[in-house]
Amino acid sequence: MNIQWSRREFLQRASAATMAALAAGAPVSNLLTSCRGKAGADSTADTVILLWMAGGMAHTETFDPKAYTPFEKDMEGNRVLSTFKSLPTKLDGIHFSEGLQSIGQVMDKGTLIRSYVAADMGHILHSRHQYHWHTCYEPPQTVAAPHMGSWIAKELGPKNPVIPAFVDIGQRFTVGEAEELKAFHTAGFLGNEFGPFFIPDPSQGLESVRPPVGMDAKRFERRNQLYNELINNSPVGEFGSDYQRESLKRSMEQAYALLNSPESKAFDLSTEPKKSYDIYNTGRFGLGCLLARRLTEQGARFISVTTEYEPFKGWDTHENGHTRLQEMKKQIDGPVAQLIKDLDEKGLLDRTMVVLASEFSRDMMVEGRPDAKVKEQVAQPDILSDLKFYGMHRHFTDGCSMLMFGGGIKKGFVYGKTADERPCKTIENPIKIEGVHQTIYHALGIPPDTQYEIEKRPFYTTPDGKGLAVKELLI
């Protein structure tokens, strides 16, 4: 595989993969190793909430702090490992970076992973690594690889038939690498009914399940009929299989059922008690965590809440890293901790797995990993003459942090280790994306050999069906 894809090349091939998925027709159902009904005695989780730190969250500035070096004008960049002080957590001897104290106080309920290693795919693009994290497949693929949430929605089915099994909160496609991000926000060959139900702004979640203002029920019903006609005359109708067409129609029928259900009130955050609402109200991500909790109560199967990737914003700290991270921590610390507390108090955490992760980490000096450096993308001076250069700016793939809670995950556990000196790379118990995915699937009772036959070859949940759950993370 050519590992030097540009964004444009990636987009072109991703678009081609989508049409290839349609042309591939329906998966051969009798070759699917079905696991329906196994989310019971053989599973420890029913629901997954993914808290996605889009943009590259620096491990040494968050959940794996190193020696703190305060800013000095004209200091050497190589001296800096962490730009925040470290503070103790609920776990003896384990510290988090300043600004994450609330999350630190719920770590007795979950596992800290300090050894996730992102893939070496050459020139680093956020959208390509995010594609890899969410699908477990390196792009480009000849078919549209399903998102993890779509696999879960397909294999386990809905917990509540009127609540979408896969809900995506906070992701817009009007900013950043919009088309590239669309490439993995899809059910691919599994069919549209297993794709994400998008709620770009959680504060307007109720609007996602209502007809537009000024449209009465009869007019909405006529639009639904027109929608079916459009499907028949669209590229899907012309080139897609019967399976794809019917799946697209079923996705609309599911949305229509939600519109008329009492459960739609879960999307209305205005009904949340003020005391609780105020804790979560740190912005779109915080309110997304609140909506995720409410949808978990109503039976959603897989929920993704993202800080959203937009170049040079959020966790994408190519400049002003230190000051940017101060703001990012304010957005996530209270809501993430409160989500864990709420799920625990409501008796939901035991069967709900919460995963907090990012596509890769950051380092001030190394782009890629020490033994596989790649082309520099942004000028980073060796001498820091200005505060805007103080922080973790380059992309680093050899040592990343993750958090996991509930759903059979060990409590008060730390897995893996990175070096305390630069390069702060993984030195114990590396875990890669196929291990992450299969650990989640294992907890849900989805067998590792789950597959469909696509283009006359088996397509597994992880490449070649060789991914193995990391049993050390599980109770």
Automatic annotation (TrEMBL):
This is DUF1501 domain-containing protein. InterPro entries: Alkaline_phosphatase_core_sf, DUF1501, TAT_signal, TAT_signal_bac_arc. PROSITE patterns: PROKAR_LIPOPROTEIN (PS51257), TAT (PS51318). The lineage of its organism: Bacteria, Pseudomonadati, Bacteroidota, Cytophagia, Cytophagales. It comes from the Bacteria.
